[in-house]
Amino acid sequence: MRVVVYSDLHYAGAAERSRRGFEARAIRNPLLRGMALAWRHWIWLRDPMAHNHRLEALIEANPDPDLVVVNGDFSLDSAFVGVSDDAALASASEALGRLRGAYGSRLLATMGDHELGKQSLFGGVGGLRLESWRRCEDSLALEAVWRRDVGPWSLVGIASTPAALPVFAPEMLPSERSGWESVGRNIQDRYRAVLDSIGPDRRILLFVHDPSALPFLAREASVVGRLPQVAQTIIGHLHTPSLFRLAQGLAGMPRIRFLGNTVRRYSSALREARVWREFRTVLCPSPPGIQLLKDGGWLELELPLDSAESGLRIRRHRLPWGPES
To answer: What span, in angstroms and rounded, lies between the C-alpha atoms of 176 and 283?
Structure first.
């Protein structure tokens, strides 16, 4: 069975494309604004709105796979509050509509952090919104926890943000804290029930967008008991294999608390990144990768259906870098 994996599409619909320069406008400090612009121009993505065509390129490159998993982050999240923003909701709806039109019931999708909202990297604006959670479930029909069995394999997706809720607590509105805590408990109950229902003779492929969730999952008895069955955990979020390797090298670093919430969140995740190895983690890059390396693409998984013991094959495919036609 051939399974392809996409992640971090960050599709920008018409309303989001009208917000050009949204990141710079969110940064009041001119020095930080200059640093952010340089980071995006030379390292990350010079124009985050110039990559919609890569979604069609992915579909054209993979017209008839057996299954497709999209591992989160469908919109640009230009208001930093997830799909509670109408423009971000429209972007995510358009991207999901194209994917569902191409793949139908073969499509499986996880929630990313940008679906629910996250503070901007330098500006510190935005954050989680409960309305984004409701819209993910009701408007986008995204399941926070899902399972699909194929042969001896169980594919399981878990929404990363609710699983790692303490990391995002400073980004919640005080009035929504109790609501988010209820969401977190509900997600725990759901993934515990799913994992507990998987027989000991099955192999598991786990899909989690943000690896920040893995240390929290590793504290759950239902997860620890299944780790020997986890053949691979597919993450997204980091966009480029180079950042994934850097994160592994920085595993165990001290938590940095004095440079703002975003740095605190990233350093907290890296402090516990050694846990990633227990999950046998592999990164699915974003379609463009990053500006500096132009190393984007997708993953292809080959699952033997006669016996899981005969081995899983994973290939990373590069997507040619080129301007939107």
So the answer is: 32
d(CA 195, CA 182) in angstroms, rounded, equals 20
User: 131 lies in a domain?
Assistant: yes
260 part of a folded domain: yes
Burial 167-203 (b: 16+ CB within 10 A, else e): bbeebbeeebeeebeebbeebbebbeebbeebeeeeb
Q: Is 189 a residue whose pLDDT tops 60?
A: yes
Residue type at position 261: N
C-alpha dist (Å) from residue 170 to 118, 163, 166: 10, 15, 8
Measured between alpha carbons, how far is 276 from 61 in angstroms, rounded to an integer? 30
> Which of helix, strand or coil describes residue 206?
strand
For residue 308, the model assigns a pLDDT of 64
Q: Is 232 exposed, middle or buried (0-12, 13-18, 19+ CB in 10 A)?
A: middle
Domain count for the chain, please give it: 1
One-letter amino acid of 247: A
pLDDT (average), residues 6-35: 94
Q: How far apart are CA 142 and CA 75, in angstroms?
A: 14
Q: Is the residue at 6 inside a domain?
A: yes
pLDDT of 325 reads: 39
> What domain range is 48 assigned to?
2-318
- Token representation of residue 227: 């780790």
The answer to whether residue 268 sits within a structural domain is yes
